[in-house]
Write a structure and sequence with these properties.
Helix content of chain A: 55-70%
CATH class of the largest domain in chain B: Alpha Beta
Number of helices of chain B: 10
CATH architecture of the largest domain in chain B: 3-Layer(aba) Sandwich
Distance between the termini of chain A: 30 Å
Largest sheet of chain A: 4 strands, mixed
Helix content of chain B: 25-40%
Strand content of chain A: 5-15%
Radius of gyration of chain A: 31 Å
Number of strands of chain B: 13
Distance between the termini of chain B: 24 Å
Number of domains of chain A: 2
CATH topology of the largest domain in chain B: Rossmann fold
Strand order of the largest sheet of chain A: 2-1-3-4
Largest interface: A-B, 28 and 34 residues
Oligomer: heterodimer
CATH superfamily of the largest domain in chain B: P-loop containing nucleotide triphosphate hydrolases
Number of strands of chain A: 6
Shape of chain B: globular
Strand order of the largest sheet of chain B: 5-6-7-3-8-9
Order of helices and strands of chain A: HHHEEHEHEHHEEHHHHHHHHHHHH
Chain lengths: 417, 305
């Protein structure tokens, strides 16, 4: 026998080993990485359909599917070799749609210049039909209206009258350039993504821990454990194991995000460059670690106090719910990230780890000191709960099969060592 | 009662009250090093609470406990193997994992725990299940795994709460055999059970409690002898006419058991056979069985209460 390894370390290493081999943990951790990689590959595909009709090859390709009938006589040269195609009669155009030669037919009615009326024919599908060629044909009409009436450079500006460059007016009246689209979208998505991942991780983690402790209690295995290790060692071992699990998970996701997210933005033309600051990564890691500490401690306490596995699941269900509060109030937190509600949510210990990230996602201003203060609050709450858990653990685990009443809780606290 | 500091386990005047109910009331007994000790009592008599106090899981309201000569602290309890009543193992845990985990907590290194697990699983015929989840095993297999967990660290003192429940006769026999081997290696064993035959087979000394009070404690033979001969068993080809009455019971193999009364003494029974000329193959004065003593003592205690 060696007798020198601290019990907390034994519990930590064995619990960690069990966690790391858990199929659900591996699946969840790797599934997020896979989704990030898929996102990196798929995001650029969405941009193609959003280009302006006058510009890219894809838009030119789209004219092949457009037909028109000019009853107004105002557009003598609208057609092109690659489309749009002119039809003398509406019926001819409809037959072309039926044969699948074109997708949309536009009939420019008599008196168009006065009324602006254009009949639109297509195989509209779904409850809310839309015509993918509508914007392209509108641009064609503008081109047709100004052609020959204004100079060429004016015609270009009529089609695209403004390329906005935006500047932010600061408090003191100075101006600064707005961040790129990539920076804006990334700044919103990355903290929000990790807040969501944290909430899901804490849900799984707390559920695991509640079941772990109540299962050991219900099976009476805990009676063997408490004759082998002190409550403090047991709690510390379990706590550190799950916090490490959270840290490893966050680490894997952060590495995946560092690799995939900037590349995703680079692949979107004109989106600009997005880099994630070290400060944001540190904040995300700190939120994960403190969130795991508090949630795990609470889960251990609930698992120890609950009289049965089933009761433990019921009682433990509220723990992860709190981490989702910032999402339920996201319309408030994201639109007013420095408002009173957002501020309060980022300082309530059970909500802060996700609340801070959602607030940052909305562009909220939280200095490093504010973040540190909020997360220290989380740690202090964890420490207090850990102290209570260590005191009541031995008494609470023996309340097997008894309902968790206020009286029983009081008895457990009174018998605390 | 001999209660000096040389006992493997010494419980002295322990009392435990839950609310208004006294579950254990001034119970004292001691287990000698190297013996197999039976701790008996009906359901709800306070056995498990006493065992929990002996192991320091709960503190007695009064009285004291000494384990292997010391206060039951973790450093001492590392040398104790404890099998709780109705013990289970986490359903999702792997067999090897749980043996290694609890073995390490009791002081084994990872390698020692794994090698001991293989050794013991081989011994109980469950080696092929070493990588299985607990939930995949039968109730009896789980009980044997729990037993393996209890003895993996070669404890000097084994405390087993109803160890044979849920086991088939073959596994009961195997567990008894392993326990006897541990005793030969110097371990002290205390177990509780409802099956008196197990106690008579394995234990030299016993303690019996009922409703939290100690009713009997001491050498099993002495306890039986103190109650005296209660019956006589005779194996013979016939039964003397004068002995045919309600106080005799026919047993297999031409055996008859005669309950003793004031007028029917062992000597008179013997004389009756001699007088009738019936050839006697076997004649034995019977001490009361532990089962009889258990029922008598518990019934009397409850009647007096």
């Amino acid at each position: 026998m060696r007798g020198t390894t601290p019990d907390a370390w034994v519990i930590f290493s064995e619990e960690l080993r069990g966690h790391l081999r858990s199929r659900w943990y591996l699946f969840f951790t790797l599934a997020v990485v896979v989704l990030m990689v898929i996102g990196m590959l798929v995001v650029p595909l969405f941009q193609g359909g959003q280009e302006s009709p006058g510009g890219g090859p894809a838009a030119q390709e789209g004219f092949k599917r457009i037909g028109f009938v000019d009853d107004s006589g105002s557009f003598p040269s609208l057609e092109g070799e690659a489309g749009p195609f002119r039809f003398a009669e509406r019926s001819q155009g409809l037959e072309a749609i039926a044969r699948g030669e074109i997708d949309s037919l536009y009939v420019i009615t008599q008196g168009y210049l006065q009324s602006g009326r254009v009949e639109q024919y297509a195989k509209f599908e779904g409850r809310f039909p839309s015509d993918p060629n509508g914007e392209a044909f509108r641009q064609l009409l503008v081109q047709g209206l100004v052609a020959g009436r204004v100079e060429a450079d004016v015609a270009v500006r009529v089609l695209d009258p403004a390329e906005f460059e935006s500047y932010r007016v600061e408090e003191g009246g100075g101006v600064s350039e707005l961040e790129s689209t990539a920076a804006a979208v990334g700044g919103l998505l990355v903290p929000l993504l990790f807040a969501g991942l944290l909430a899901l991780s804490l849900t799984l983690g707390s559920g695991y821990m509640v079941q772990n402790v109540s299962g050991e209690k219900e099976s009476r295995l805990v009676e063997v454990i408490v004759t082998s290790a002190s409550p403090v060692s047991i709690l510390a071992g379990k706590l550190l194991a799950l916090a490490t699990i959270g840290l490893v998970q966050a680490g894997v996701w952060i590495i995946a995000a560092v690799v995939t997210i900037p590349v995703s933005f680079e692949r979107v033309a004109g989106a600009g460059v997005f880099t994630i600051s070290a400060g944001l990564w540190l904040t995300i890691i700190a939120c994960f670690v403190t969130g795991y500490f508090l949630t795990t401690t609470t889960a251990i306490l609930v698992g120890a106090l609950a009289p049965s596995n089933r009761e433990a699941s019921r009682l433990g269900g509220w723990i992860p719910l709190l981490t989702f509060v910032p999402f339920w109030l996201s319309s408030l937190v994201l639109t007013q990230p420095n408002g009173l509600a957002a501020r309060i949510l980022s300082y309530i210990p059970f909500i802060a780890p996700t609340g801070i990230l959602v607030r940052i996602s909305g562009g909220g201003e939280m200095s490093a000191w504010h973040i540190a203060a909020a997360l220290i609050g989380v740690l202090i709450t964890s420490a207090v709960l850990l102290w209570v858990a260590a005191r009541v653990f031995r008494a609470a685990i023996l309340m097997r099969g008894q309902s968790l009443t206020r009286h029983n809780l009081w008895v457990a606290l009174r018998k605390a060592e | 009662m001999n209660m000096n500091g040389e006992h493997a386990l010494q419980v002295e005047g322990v009392t435990k009250t839950f609310g208004s109910r006294t579950v254990v009331d001034r119970v004292s007994f001691a287990v000698r090093p190297g013996e197999i000790f039976g701790f008996l009592g009906p359901n709800g008599s306070g056995k498990t609470t006493t065992i929990r106090m002996a192991l320091g899981i709960i503190r007695p309201d009064s009285g004291s406990v000494s384990v292997l000569g010391s206060h039951p602290e973790l450093s001492v309890l590392k040398a104790v193997g404890y099998l709780p009543e109705e013990a289970g193992l986490p359903a999702r845990a792997g067999v090897m994992d749980i043996i290694r985990y609890l073995g390490r907590l009791k002081g084994l290194s990872r390698e020692e725990a794994e090698s001991r697990a293989v050794e013991l699983l081989t011994r109980v015929g469950l080696l092929e299940h070493r990588l299985a989840k607990v939930e995949a095993l039968s109730q009896g297999m789980r009980q044997m795994i729990q037993f393996v967990v209890t003895i993996a660290h070669r404890p000097g003192l084994l405390i087993l709460d109803e160890p044979f429940s849920g086991l088939d006769p073959l596994n009961v026999q195997l567990m008894k055999q392993i326990l006897l081997e541990h005793q030969r290696d110097g371990a002290t064993i205390m177990f509780s059970t409802h099956i008196m035959a197990d106690v008579e087979e394995m234990c030299e000394r016993i303690a019996l409690i009922s409703d939290g009070r100690l009713l009997l404690f001491g050498d099993l033979g002495d306890i039986k002898r103190a109650r005296g001969v209660k019956s006589v068993q005779v194996q013979a080809d016939g039964i003397p006419d004068e002995l045919r009455d309600d106080h005799s019971k026919l047993l297999p193999d031409n055996m008859v058991e005669y309950e003793l009364t004031d007028r029917r003494t062992p000597e008179r029974i013997f004389q009756a056979y001699a007088a009738s000329g019936i050839s006697v193959d076997r004649y034995e004065r019977m001490l009361p069985s532990l089962n009889d003593i258990f029922i008598e003592e518990v019934s009397r205690a409850r009647h007096n209460a």
